[in-house]
Amino acid sequence: MTYSLVARDDEQWGVAVQSKFLAVGSIVPWAEPHVGAIATQAWANPRYGPEGLALLREGLTAAEVVERLVAGDESRVERQLGVVDAHGEAASYTGAGCMEWAGHRTSDGYAAQGNILVGRETVDALAETFESTTGSLAERLIACLAAAQAAGGDRRGQQSASLLVVERGGGYAKLSDVVVDLRVDDHFRPIEELERLYALHDRLFGETPPEQWLPLEGAVADEVRGRLARLGYESLDAWAGVANLEGRVDGNASIDPVVLTALREEAP
């Protein structure tokens, strides 16, 4: 009842998953920077997550981790598993007892897998979309879910989706390793809702290249001061802190276009 993609892109590792199952993000995805990422599904074994990451930390390859985990599991015929290791090597396993259609596809940097699907087209869409898209790992993973759903998706329908991306020091305030951790636990269009949540996340925590920032001078400076005054703020910093955009403000010499757009929306 689930399809997922586990992937590595440069210094990031991540998992995206959709399922006709409540709160799939609480069970399937696991990831640790410079260690690897794992998806455990079908009749999921939640122990595959922490135990698999521990094996990856020891230096085992993705294929060795898959082999070790399923070998010690008496219910392995009903399990499905995808692993990408620290080097981007990938491996998957689909037990013979997984409900049709069930299967997987792997290549350098990703493992795609699914069960109770309309057909193999869903897994192919995951793989081919990952191979052909650009952008951040989070953006690519969401695009893969959308393509997989368009190709047929889960035979039982949709209910929940999740996106997890990690990078050493790549998260909040550069002190967290969690770049993105978004979950849609129960929704009739979970991938679309995940896309909406990610857009909000990127607005608050994304980064605009410095060369794209606008000089805070002339008409732009006058506009910013006027809009802040209408909202009752004396400085951009003060407003940005309330709007949760403080991470996108850096001094008074220039302004992030995302911040300017948000200010215009709040003070038309």
Largest sheet: 6 strands, antiparallel
CATH class of the largest domain: Alpha Beta
Q: Roughly what is the average pLDDT, rounded to an integer?
A: 96
Number of helical stretches of at least 4 residues: 8
The order of strands across the largest sheet is 7-8-1-2-9-10
CATH superfamily of the largest domain: Aminohydrolase, N-terminal nucleophile (Ntn) domain
What fold name goes in the CATH topology slot of the largest domain? Answer: Glutamine Phosphoribosylpyrophosphate, subunit 1, domain 1
- What are the secondary-structure elements, in order, as H or E? EEEEHHEEEEHHEEHEHHEH
Q: What's the structural domain tally?
A: 2
State the secondary-structure class: alpha+beta
Q: List low-pLDDT spans.
A: none
The N- and C-terminal alpha carbons lie at a distance of 46 Å
**Assembly form of the protein:** single chain
Report the portion of residues in β strands: 25-35%
Computed over alpha carbons, the radius of gyration is: 21 Å
Count the strands?
Answer: 12
Dominant shape: elongated
Tell me what you see in this structure.
By secondary structure, the chain is α+β, with helices and mostly antiparallel strands. The chain has 2 domains: 204 residues, Aminohydrolase, N-terminal nucleophile (Ntn) domain (Glutamine Phosphoribosylpyrophosphate, subunit 1, domain 1), CATH 3.60.20; 57 residues, no CATH class. The chain has 8 helices and 12 strands. The strands form 3 sheets. Strands 7-8-1-2-9-10 form a 6-stranded antiparallel β-sheet, with helices on one face. α4 runs antiparallel to α5. The longest helix has 16 residues. The radius of gyration is 21 Å and the shape is elongated. The termini are far apart.
